[in-house]
């Protein structure tokens, strides 16, 4: 048997993204891959079973989650070496992005196995793309820490990084997290909140953290669902400045103090007064 024959016999591990809410976001390639592979490693086989049956795909699945992935990794590599093609999916979105799969991909790569992505939805990317914050540089920093003090430090470091920071947050922790955000960076800190992306109750809110707290407290229902938080980096809180607002502020500044000019422009364009003022100051300091 030649080396090429041997390589042909090695299977491929496909890292397949699935929708984060709207089932129409699944790609044709994802459907084809899931239908064609010998086995599907799923974070939750029942959850993935529903997705597969929606698309009329009959496939063998097995569980691969945080608690067994280290043990399963070698088994997956052995199957690949036996020529089996395997897909790895998580409950939603792109596997390995705050989801299981790292131990498997790492082992397979180190062993020289074929690992290929079938890209698709990812809540972090969907959220930042619509956030209105700078996207030339950004970082994804996973879930906020569980403890208050660690969370405050986490927010400070995110802000100090100077670039847009995307983080995941759980519904039961959102209010405590926002209180920590106030403690860490002040109640006027700009923040973007993206909820239930691609679903019926998709919501974007951008403004000061105190305004977001009021928005979520007014109707506690708004705290429910899947959430992404995004912070602008220090000195990059420029999203609130539209070119029109900038022009008006320049004109008004000849007649009044900057803060007042920002207030008038904010009122005229329906922007947040403090955020606009802060953004102008930050822009000028740069
Ligand atoms: N791998 C997934 C991805 O690619 O987005 C993320 C998995 S992580 C375990 C789940 C977290 O992602 C949720 O707690 C929430 O923070 C975020 N998330 C997932 N789906 C979302 C959606 N439709 N809207 C907003 N956030 C979402």
Sequence-ordered SSE layout with sheet pairings:
Elements lengths: L2 H7 L2 E5 L11 H9 L2 E4 L2 H10 L6 E3 L5 H13 L4 E4 L12 H9 L3 E5 L4 H7 L8 E6 L4 H13 L3 E6 L4 H12 L4 E6 L7 E6 H10 L8 E5 L11 H11 L4 H12 L3 H13 L1
Parallel strand pairs: 1-4, 1-5, 2-3, 2-4, 6-7
Antiparallel strand pairs: 7-10, 8-9, 8-10
The structure holds S-adenosylmethionine (SAM).
EC number: 2.1.1.198
Main location: cytoplasm
Keywords: Cytoplasm, Methyltransferase, rRNA processing, S-adenosyl-L-methionine, Transferase
What is the helix/strand order? Answer: HEHEHEHEHEHEHEHEEHEHHH
Under the CATH scheme, which class of the largest domain? Answer: Alpha Beta
Whole-number count of domains? 3
Strand order of the largest sheet: 3-2-4-1-5
Instruction: Say what the CATH topology of the largest domain is.
Output: Cobalt-precorrin-4 Transmethylase, domain 1
Strand content: 15-25%
Judging by the overall fold, what is the CATH architecture of the largest domain?
A: 3-Layer(aba) Sandwich
Number of strands: 10
Reported for the largest beta sheet, the result is: 5 strands, parallel
Net shape:
elongated
Give the structure's gist in a few sentences.
The chain is α/β, with parallel strands linked by helices and 286 residues long.
Describe the model.
The chain has 286 residues and is an alpha/beta fold. It has 3 domains: 3-121, Tetrapyrrole methylase, N-terminal domain (Cobalt-precorrin-4 Transmethylase, domain 1); 124-231, Tetrapyrrole methylase, C-terminal domain (Methyltransferase, Cobalt-precorrin-4 Transmethylase, Domain 2); 243-285. Helix content is 44%, strand content 17%. It is built from 12 helices and 10 strands. It has helices spanning 3-9, 28-36, 45-54, 69-81, 102-110, 123-129, 148-160, 174-185, 209-218, 243-253, 258-269, 273-285; strands at 12-16, 39-42, 61-63, 86-89, 114-118, 138-143, 164-169, 190-195, 203-208, 227-231. The protein has a 5-stranded parallel sheet, sandwiched between helices. The chain has a 5-stranded mixed sheet with strand order 6-7-10-8-9. Strand 2, helix 3 and strand 3 form a beta-alpha-beta unit. Helix 4 (69-81) crosses helix 5. The longest helix is centred in the first third of the chain and has 13 residues, at 69-81. The termini are far apart. Mean pLDDT is 93; it is low at 1-5. The protein binds S-adenosylmethionine.
